[in-house]
Amino acid sequence: MATTSYTLVIGDKNFSSWSLRPWLALTHCGIPFAEERIRLRQPDSKAAILRHTPAGKVPALKTTGGVVWDSLAIVEYLAERHREHRLWPADEEARAHARSISAEMHSGFVALRNDMSMDLLARLPPPPIGEVLETDIRRIVALWKDAHTRFGHGGPFLFGAFSNADAMFAPVATRFRTYGVDLSRFGDDGTAAAYVRAILDLPEMAEWAEGAKAEVRQRASA
Hints:
Blueprint: E1 7-10, H1 17-29, E2 34-37, H2 45-50, E3 60-62, E4 67-69, H3 71-81, H4 92-107, H5 110-115, H6 131-151, H7 164-178, H8 191-200, H9 203-221
């Protein structure tokens, strides 16, 4: 077995969307790492996280040289350290586009995050969809279609093969399933729905979900 030089500090798998992103990139690429989970929403959660990262938030990637925190910074680091996995597209224009939409996911879609928070194992009715939330969903549908139409030929993911952009948008796919969102109501011609299925069908997503179930069982028996 390969020796790992990484430890990924994450939160609860049922609702830590930011933790899922680098975990998915690492796991999909088969990059060895140890996993350390901190239960969130507890009185000592902040103190526990601060023992690993000065930012006081998960995820954090502990390396032999220090700590990388923030999901986008971590996946960028992995792309640089493990170029053989091509976590960004090889084509220059596609790579710039992938970075752009990943940054947009990182900094935007506040209404989606607030009104449709990640609750991986739940199946819930859609929340009231006001103008701002509708704008977010329509933008995501259009963004996915544009990326796949321009760059995704030959594969089910946004740029064909799996990339950091897919890691960044994977939690959004889980939200659309959790809240039963009919994407055709928001301009989808089937491309976005197919992309959601492709993400959710990843074996790594099933593995993450099993981890979430185990955590829920553990809390119930505590």
